[in-house]
Structure formats: C-alpha cells, structure tokens
Amino acid sequence: MAVCAAIVGKDNSPKYFACTNPDEELNFQYKVLSSLDVVEEKLNAANKGSDMRELYLGILYSLETHKIYGYVTNTKIKFIIVAESTNTALRDNEIRSMFRKLHSLRA
Amino acid sequence: MRSSVSYILSSTTTEPNMSHPDYEQLAHDHAALLVLVRQIGSQLKNKMFNKFYDRISRLNSVNITDSVGQVRNIYIRYVKEHPVENNLWGDFQTHRRLLGLVTFGKYDSQQELNDICRVHEQLKVKYITTLFDSRCILFGPSSDSPTEETTSSDATSSISSSTDAHSIKTTEKDLEKKELYFEENDKEVFTTPSNFKTRALFYSETDPCADLEAHLTDFLNSLFWVLESKRLERSREKLERVSLLLAPFEKKDFVGLDMESRNNKRRCTGRSTKHLGDLCLQAGLITEALTHYHNAAETLKSVNDWLWLGAAYEGLCTATALVLYPNIYRNAPLHRNSSLQEGSPKRSNSITTPILDIVKKEVPNTLPPEEISKKYREAIVHYSKYQNAGIIETEACFKAARISVEQNHPLQAASFLQNVVFINLTLSEQERIQRFETLSDLYMQIGFMRKASFCQRLAATRYVSAQNPTPNWSQCYNLMLQSFRGHKISLDPTEMMSTNVQVGWSTLQIQLLQEIVVAAKRMGHSALATRHMTFLLQTMWPYLSINDQKEFAIQLQSLSAQCEGSPVSLVLDNGTVIPPANLTNIPICAGFNLRNLQPHLRPRKIQVLKQDSGPFLFTPINFGSLERKSAKVQSKMDFFWIENDLCEVTLKLVNPLPFELKVSNMRLLTSGVVFESIPETVVLPSDTPTLVTLNGSPKESGELEVLGYSTHTLGVKSNCRLRYMKGFLPQYTIEVIPTLPTVEVKTSLPESATFSTFQNFENVVTSASLSLYNGESTQCVITIANTSQVPVEMLEVSIQSVLEPSLQDQIFKWSNDDLQKQLPLLPGNSASLTINLYSAANFLASGFNGPELSSGVFGSSHASSIMSASAGPSSLPSRLNSPVHSTMGNSFHGRRNDLNSSFRSSNSGQSSMTTTGCRSPGALTLPQHVASAVVDAQLQLRFSGGSGFQAGYCRSCSIFITLEMIPSMQVTNWDVLPAETYSQFYLVLDVANLTSQEMEVYYTPSKHMLIEGHESCRVPVPVDRCPLSKLTKFYMEQKSGLDDRLDLDKICSEHIANLVDLSWHLMSTDTRGKASLKGITLTPNMLDIVRMSPIQWEVLINDGLIKPQEEVNCVVGECLEIKVGVSNCFEKPLRQLTLSVQFYQDYQNGMQNYQLETRLAFTGTTKIILPPLEPQDKAKHACNVVFFNSGHYKMDIQCSAPECLASTPSVNTTGHIWRFLPAIEVNVN
C-alpha cells in the first residue's frame, strides 16, 4: 500500500498532502518535491513527442526505501504516490488503478 | 543500475582503496595528462598563485607534431591536490597518474630558496612512481633581473629533436648541465642547492612572465614525449608475454593463482590492451585507443573480468565522447557567484551538428551517441560489483551524468546521479559534502532545481552534523541560502508576497527558513538571523499555525535583542544581497486614511470662482464617459494639507499575536516634499483593532506622497510600504499648500452650552451666548490672537445666519475699519474686534388693524370697508416671518396671534381714549408663555497671510453666537389721535410689559411711566405730523393705486418710527433698551391724521377766529355765523373738493347723533363744491346756524375729495376726508 499521496497543482504548489505516518511528513514532502523535477522533465519530453494520452508517468524515483510514482492529469494536476520499496507485491497495474481512483475522487 | 551481485567479487576491504574521489572529473579527463600545480612556502601570496594557476590552466591543450608528422592534440589537466593513493589506480586508468609537477615559490633569501627547492624535491619523491618531469617557478626579490633563459633553447631543441624514448635521458643530463651553468651565472646572487635537480624558472616578483607559456609548452612537450615513449614501449610488447595489470585491491586476489592458465592469459592480454588504449587516448591517438578498447572489451568479456571490462567500456565511452563532443572541456574556471543565479541548465551547449556525424563515420569503433550512456551504465553495473571500486563507480556516474547533460538527456543524467547516493563509501564528511555539492551542481545543470536544493540542504546539514569534527556554520548557511531557489523562496519578501498564489511548499519553506535562522545564529551573524526570522514571519505568516506565529514572534524578539533588525539590505561576503524584510503582518494594518485638517484649519480659496452651481448639485448625466464609474478610490486626495501644519493619518492596526505588542517609533513614510513625521508609540492589545494616529508636518509646499509607515516592533524596524501590502493603494498623494497663519479666537461672552444643529458649524472654534431683552444692546469683544509664525495679513469678518440681511445687520454691527487698522497681525500679537449686539425685534404686535378699534375711534362707516380690502396682505407684514429663527418663528407668530386676539377682545369695549397716559383698567391677561426667540449666527473669520495668502488661500473659522432675544416690551395696539395742535398728532400705544419685572417706559424725553410685569398700559405719544414734502408724489397723479397707498403707508410708518423714541428700563436688573416702532401699519384714516393736511383751515365764528380746543358758547336762538376759509397749501391744485359743515352730538359712548334737524337750522348750504383750488388759493364759504335747544354740539367741518362721495365702498381708496380738527364744540345754553 502507498505510504504517502500528494496532489500538486499546476504551478507545482501543494494542494493536498497525506501520509500514513505524520511524523515523517516532512521527509515525504522533500521526496515528493524532488520528484517534481522528474515529473516536469517527463512532461517536457512528452510534449515534444506525441500527444500524451497516457496520464501515468510510471516510477519517478526509486530510493533505497521508497518508490515514487507519478500521474499527471490533462490539466497538469499531478498526483504522486510514494510506496515502500520492500513492498514488492505492489505491481505497476495496481499503482495505475490507485492513481485512477485518486483522479476520479479528485474529479 | 546496481548490480544484483554487488560486492560478490570483492573481498572485504582492508586494502588501501582509493579513498579520495574526484567528483569534478569529466570523461575527457581520461585523455588528459595530469599535472599537479603546487605553491610552496608562505611567501607567495595565495592570490598571486591563483592568478598563475588560472593562467596555466588556460593552457589545457597543446598540439604536438609527432615523429611521423602527425599533429597530436594533447589535453592537460591541472590539479592543485593529488592524493598519492590515487596514483595506485594508475594501471587501471592511466589518466589517474600524476605525470607532471609545477611548483611556485617565492624567496627573499638563500635560505628560503633552499627550502623551496627542498620541498619541490620532496614532492618529486612523493610522486616518483609516476612523475615524468617537473618545473619549479621561482620568484626572486624584485631587484633581480631574470637571467635563467640561457639554456632553455638547447633544452627544447634537444627535446624536439629527440625522436625516441632514449632521448629523455639525454634531456635530463642537459638539465643538470643547465643548472650548473645557471649556478655559474648567478653565483653572486642566489643559487639553488646542489641536490636540486629540477629545471627552475626564475622571475622577479613584478615580472610579467611573458615567456611562461612557452616554457610550459616545453614542459608539456617533454611530458608528451615521455608518455609517447612509454606507449611505444607498451605497444611493442608481445601480448602473450605481458604481466597482469592489477587494480590496487586485486593484488591479494591473484596470489597463488595459475597465471599461465588460458583464462588468465586472456585476462592479461585484455587488461594490457585496455591499458594501451588508455595510453593512446592520452597520447592523442583516439582512433587507436578506440580499437584497443574495443578489443579489450571483447577479450575481457570472455573471461568475465568485470572490473576491467567496465574500465574498457568506460574507455570506449570517453573516447567516443571525445570524438563526438570535443568541446566539453572544463570551461575556464568560473567562480560562481551565488547572487548571479546559477543560470539556465546547460542544455543549450549540446552539439549535435551533422559535422559530428561525419567525424563519427571517419573514426571507426565509435559508439553511437545513445550507446554511450548504455555502455556507461554497463560499466557502472560492472564496477558496482566491487565494493572497493566504489570511488571509480562514483566518478563514472558523474562522468556519465555530464555526458548525458551534454546530450541533453536530463532524465538519464538524473538516473546516473541518483545512482551516486546508493554507492556505499566510507568517506570523510568533507567528501560527502563535496559529493552533495557536485550532485546539486549537476542537478542544477539539468534543471532539477528542487533536487539540487535538496542536495544543497543535505550538504548544508553535513557541514554541521554531529559526525563532522569541524562544523562550519557559515558554509552551511551559504548552502542553505543557495537552496532557497529550489524551494521557490525569493530573498525579497515583497517578491514572495506579490504573487497571490502559493507556489512553494510552505511546510518545507518554513522548515528551511527555520534552519537558516539557526545557521545564521550559529554562524554568529545575528543580523542575518534576525533578518531571516523576520522574513519567515512576514512571508510565511498565512501558513503558520497560531502557535507557531506566537513562537516565532517570541524567537524573533530574542534574536533581535542581539541585533536589531532594520530595513536595509545586508550584503554577505560573497556578494549576496539580502533585501530587507519588513513586518507588515505584525501589526496588521486594516485601514490607512489621510485625514483632512480640522475644519477651522482647512485652507480655502480666497476667491471662489464659481460659488453657486445652481440648485442642482447632482447631475445624473455622466460627463466624460464611463471612466468615472470604473475609477476606483483615488489616490489623490481631494483636500489639502498645509505646510508646517500638523497633519494626521489614521491607521487601524490589529495585533494578531496573542500577547500585547508594543509598536514604537511609528512614522509615516513619504516622498515628495520634506515631511517631518512625529514618532508614535502604541501598545496594541491582542486581536483588537486599534486606531492610531500618526502625525507629521510638511515642511514645504508641493506634492506629498504618503507611501506607508514604519514600525519598530519585536525589535525589528520595518518600513511598511502600502505598495507591498494587500488592499491598499500603492500611495496617497496630497497637495501641500504654502503656510497659513493660525489664530486663536476668544470672546468676552460665555460659551454656549450646546451648539444647535446649525448647518456648517464644523469650523466653529468657539462660541458665545447671551440673552438680551428685545431692544437691549451690548458689546462683545472678540480677541483674535495670532498663534502661528506667519503674520495675518488678511482678515475678513462676516456674519451668517438664517436671518434676513437687513435684520441681521441690525443685530450684529461691527466696525470693519477698526479691524483692518490692526492688520497685519504679527505672530504672537492679537487683535480685538468689538461686535455690537442689539436685540432687534418687532415691537409691534401683528394682526393689528382690526376694524373695531378704528371704527371705535372714528365711527366712519366706510373705514371698515376700506380696511377689508387692504387688510389681507398688509395685516401680516412679510417681514414678520423672517426676524426670528424659523422654528421659533412659527410658534412665536402663533402666540402673537393669540395675544393679539385677546387684546382685541379686551379692547373692544374701549372707545374713549384720553390724551394722557393711563393705566389700563385691570391687569391685562397677558399670556405667560411668551417665549423668547433664539438667534443662532456664525461670525465667520476668514484670515490669511504669508505665502499661503499669495497662493490665494485662507482659513476660515467661525464663532457661534447664540443670542436669546427675550421679549421685553410690546406695542399691542396703536391708534392715532389728532393733537391739540395742528402740527402734531397723538400716537396712542398700548404698551405691554412682557417681562416679569417692573418696567419704566420713556415715551417722550420728559415723560415716562411704570408698568408692572405682564401688564400693559396705554400711552399717548405726541408726534409731528408727516410733512407734505414727503408725500408730494401721491398728489401728483389722480389715479394712484393700491401700491401707492402702501407706499404712503410706508412713508408714514417710517416717519413715525423715526420720531417716536420709546425706551424702557427694567428697574430690577437695570437693563435698558429701546423699542422701535418700525413697521407700524396705519389705516387710511390714520394716515389722514398722520399726514399734514394739504388744506389749511380758517374757521371764523361770528367773525372770531377759532383756535383748536376752543369752545364756542352761545344761547338758544342765537345765530352763529360760520365762515370757513379753505386754502390749498399743497403744491398742486386740488379739484372738486366738497366742503361740508355738519353738527352732531357726541354721546361719549361711541354713539354720535347726526339727526339734529329738530335742534338746529342752517341758513346757507352746508355742502358746497368748491372750485378748483390752485396752490395757495383760498376758497371761502359762509353759512349760519341757529340752535333750538341747549346742549353740547360739535361742529364737524370737512373737506372731501370727490371719490369719497361715492357712497358705495369703492376700491378707489384715494378718497380723502380732511377735517377741521378737533371738532369745534359748541355749548348752547
């Protein structure tokens, strides 16, 4: 299961931030913030190429303890999910569906 | 990227591994010759050394023609430090070997020179295993002339001429020779010690060292040739025979292994080939290098020699990079200035021009660009299998990342960089920090600002971590400051506040700001700590919890106790400017208003051009289009401030903190004209809006801009500019006009208790109130003191009230001339103005002209009919409405009517009027509620002086005067009676004393009468009749209308008013006053009495001239001869006069009996129409009368104008009856 979820606005300002362990929120915030660089870069790259149908960005970062996944809506609202690396059970598809749920909830 | 079989191939380390990573390495460095540049001794200044280092560094590549005439491009890399351990990896990657040494030293004495030489030799020894050649550059005392040039030429020639490795030895010999030679030359000065076997370059301190580059090129040449010889040596070795090359940590692994096995042979070959590739690369033979690398990779792959395979791959990558991107060499040392933002990511440099494709095709074995990173990745994976190769791996990551940057593949670069942090190395803190700094630098280059900031912050925390034996807070601070950018924190709070949207992540921003405050504090720069704390409070205020707000505010207070915050920019040592942070949230300003001056101090235009714009002050028509609606609050004030006057701005402040806040030194921030602001200190209770007034005075005239205010709270001085605050105009502009005087006004009268709601009373400065009995007058002295520094040059006095101007002038009188004489009024002086106040009132009861009285007196039947026509408009003279305050007026008026009616009824029975004054028969039922009238007026003073006067401004203030006019005396009724003398008549007045006191009324100079309070009495006042000269006009035209009659009335009434001088004296209070009969109204009948008759009578009875009041006695049966002479003493002829003689009996009860046919008989006509009488003409008529009975008779002789004969009550009122008055009494015995 994800340990942290964040919604980031178009201008990269935080809109929503939640994590399972509130004490670590600061750490997660740092992680999520840094991952935005990758998101931006991926978006840049995607813009040059074909039109992006795929909202899911895949894994942004894998850290020693955590993996960070990203998802961008057409309006450039970003969803970020942080999952524990040890959680090998978590498949890409599950992450995808998590994002979709998040997206529909948000919408 | 990490190999899953990590560490499996490496033993746990006790071996000396390469523990000094070089994060700055580029792929291109693989091709470079490593030269150590060192500074020896303390004599040489660091700055100078750096200058030379930079100069040398520019010489980073040389072209050398080799033995076969091919031009080789040789790269050189200069370093200042080179740990000797790194040399150990020289077999693995030859570019790690230190090949050259250049030292700089400065000496003043032989001893110092010796020391330098000794250190140089020591360094040579240190790197002896790899060092090819060295140079020592020496700076002697400036007086020395550089002299060492002598042998260089042959040295170089020998080098250039040498074609093989053997020549090196000869060169070395040459060098020794040269040194000997040199010693001989310079013996008398300084000599290098005999064991110093290095070529030295001598310069004086001030020498420009023009040939330094040339010498260095020589030096580099020598390096190259040695290298080339080694390469050749290597290339000639039989591949089967080569010894196994080892990485430092591998030595133990191969102990006891069968080196002759096929596998190991191949391993040897592979490693050797790779090594040769390295050498070729360094020697500028990229093509060969690529071939070697390629072959090596093939070989090594087959024997699973991962480490060296990795190296071969890396070699392949670097060589390819060198071909594809020849330009990414380390750019000239650019000292990054952190205030100069770290620039856009380096993407623009990427060069993927078609030319390169051509190059690529030309060079065999190069990798396609996209393959580079793949191969690098592979290499890194292979490295990662060896724990001891951690440094190599790390460096490879950085190199790969840099190539990715060049290729403009940020994600790739990021992944390489990301890998760096996973590599487990035992590093010193310093190296860890460097690692993070390099990471952040590279992240920055690929535009990953957030990541870069994150690394910077990590580096910063490393500087001061508990493990760090030498915490460096200032480094920590600097890095923290640099990481602001990635967190979207601008150093300028106004910039932060200007965007409404929250861009950065406030939680992290707050965290970072808190950290930097601590760093600044620990660094010992408390001003910065205060500044950052202020910044934190100011910019992050909305995102702080209430508790945090409080906490930070308290922290700020304690920080600022050490160093007060002030609104000036702080400049750091590295040139970074920290802009001021102003606390605009503490306290919050909820309102900012410029106040107009006090009404009495406001400037006014002396000349108002357009005073009255008509009755329509509002127009629904919008002239000038729609702008007016869109225009919001104007920043330009529509009022003025005056130079040197105290001007006010009110602020509404809210203290958001849960404790009491003291804000001191509050001032206004202005621009434009000079403004002196008066500091203000307030203590704000928590969360309660407080109004604060800031004062100041402009010192010049002109335009003043109010920009905001400054505060000093929590130990921080802030300039709160409205421009940067939400919900305010950026500034307020106000016109300051030149200085005007101020005055203080006092009156001699007591102040009124309250002002009425009189309009426009805002500029009232003082007030005066008094009560006067009607007719009383008094004086009021107004003192005007100049309290300013400017003389008063203009002073105008005017009175304003709702009264009619003429009445107003009666009540208030002053001498303007007296006032003007006292001007100019110098500062500190005072002027006085005397106002005469007179309680002017109408002393006549209105509603007079009741027919009863007149008919009662004269009984002429037609009088009433005349009156009925004229009574309407004239009974209520229009003037009566205005004299008093309107609210009072109505009631007063109403009462007066009551009063009048009661009078009338009481008087109706009285028909007899005596010529002497008498008390009225009983106490009059005067109403007790006769109220006083209150007149409110404003005495307006307009004054000006000084430069403001020249500019056409003045001030205006007013004195509010409340005048209570108490009724004193009133004439309730009046009538006229013919007097005993022809030239006079009696004005009979019913005088009522409306006071409760005893009143003495003087009605002629000699006569007076006492009236009890609320009583009335009747007084006769002898008055001269109105002379005809005043009335000429009315007889000129025959047809004169109603207007004329009114005019006549007026003239007569004025005549009376002028002549009758009623004055009263209240006995108890000793107040005196005068009453005027102004406005007295007269009936036509009265008018005839009042006027002088145009007809002069001459009545003879029995030839005896009858005088007025004379009685005629006769007996019954006696014939009286009556001769009447009528002369016209008017200026024009009188026509159609009818003269009639009539007798009647007066019963003294209002009845007159004209039916006397039985009692007397006339001879001759009693009525005759006289011929037209020219002026001064005389007409005569005679008749006789005989009385039959005794008794009192009265003879009425009258002359009437024709119209009067018409018996019908006509509208023509010009008819006149002139009687011979008084009627002659005839006593018949």
From TrEMBL, chain A:
Gene Ontology cellular component annotations, sorted alphabetically: perinuclear region of cytoplasm
Main location, first listed in the record: cytoplasm
CDD domains to which the protein is assigned, alphabetical: TRAPPC2L (cd14854)
Localization, UniProt: Cytoplasm, Perinuclear region
SUPFAM superfamilies for the chain: SNARE-like (SSF64356)
Keywords assigned: ER-Golgi transport, Transport
InterPro entries assigned to the protein according to its UniProt record, in alphabetical order: Longin-like_dom_sf, Sedlin, TRAPPC2L
BP-aspect Gene Ontology terms: endoplasmic reticulum to Golgi vesicle-mediated transport
Family: Belongs to the TRAPP small subunits family. Sedlin subfamily.
Protein name: Trafficking protein particle complex subunit 2-like protein
Native organism taxonomy: Eukaryota, Metazoa, Ecdysozoa, Arthropoda, Hexapoda
Record gene name: LOC112905374
TrEMBL record, chain B:
Domain Trs120/TRAPPC9 fourth Ig-like: 1097-1219
Domain (Trs120/TRAPPC9 TPR region): residue spans on this chain: 426-561
Trs120/TRAPPC9 first Ig-like domain boundaries: 604-709
Stretches for region Disordered: 143-171, 885-919
Trs120/TRAPPC9 N-terminal domain residues: 90-328
Biased composition regions of type Low complexity, renumbered to the chain: 143-165, 899-912
Keywords of this entry: Golgi apparatus
PANTHER family reported for this sequence: TRAFFICKING PROTEIN PARTICLE COMPLEX SUBUNIT 9
Record-given protein name: Protein brunelleschi
Organism phylogeny: Eukaryota, Metazoa, Ecdysozoa, Arthropoda, Hexapoda
